[in-house]
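Query structure, 136 C-alpha cells:
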C-alpha cells in the first residue's frame, strides 16, 4: 500500500488535472506512480480524510490519463527507473550533510549511521503523530 498527495490549490511543480470530475493539482511523478501501480494490478483510488476517516472519492482516477498529460514524455518504465525527482533533491541534501559530518572527524560509516539514526527518529515521530491523529 502506498499513497501520494493531490492538492486542491496550485503549487509549484504540480500540474492541474481532472480526477473524479474535479480539478486537482498533482505532481507528475505521482501520475507515473499510479500508472505503475495500475500496471502491477494494484487498486488505485482517490481518497480524502474528512475528519472522520478515509472516504473513497472514486476508483481508478488515472485510468484515462497519459504521462504526456503531465509533461512526461519518457516511457513509464524509464520514468520509474529514473525515480522521483523530489527524492533526488533530498538525497543531495543528505550527501551535503554527510560531507559536513565527515569534516567533523567521523568516518563515512559513522556519518551514515548518524544520518540513519536521525532519519529514523524523525520518521518515528511522524508515525507517532499520524497514529495519534488517526486514533490508533
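Result returned for the query:
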Amino acid at each position: 500500500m502506498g499513497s501520494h498527495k493531490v492538492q486542491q490549490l496550485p503549487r509549484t511543480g504540480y500540474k492541474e488535472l481532472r480526477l473524479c470530475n474535479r480539478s486537482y493539482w498533482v505532481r507528475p511523478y505521482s501520475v507515473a506512480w499510479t500508472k505503475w501501480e495500475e500496471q502491477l494490478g494494484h487498486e488505485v483510488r482517490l481518497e480524502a480524510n474528512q475528519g472522520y476517516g478515509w472516504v473513497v472519492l472514486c476508483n481508478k482516477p488515472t485510468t484515462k490519463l497519459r504521462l504526456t498529460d503531465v509533461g512526461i514524455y519518457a516511457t513509464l518504465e524509464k520514468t520509474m527507473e529514473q525515480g522521483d525527482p523530489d527524492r533526488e533533491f533530498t538525497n543531495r541534501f543528505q550527501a551535503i550533510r554527510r560531507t559536513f559530518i565527515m569534516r567533523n572527524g567521523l568516518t563515512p560509516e559513522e556519518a551514515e549511521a548518524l544520518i540513519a539514526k536521525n532519519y529514523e527518529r524523525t520518521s518515528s515521530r511522524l508515525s507517532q503523530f499520524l497514529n495519534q491523529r488517526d486514533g490508533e
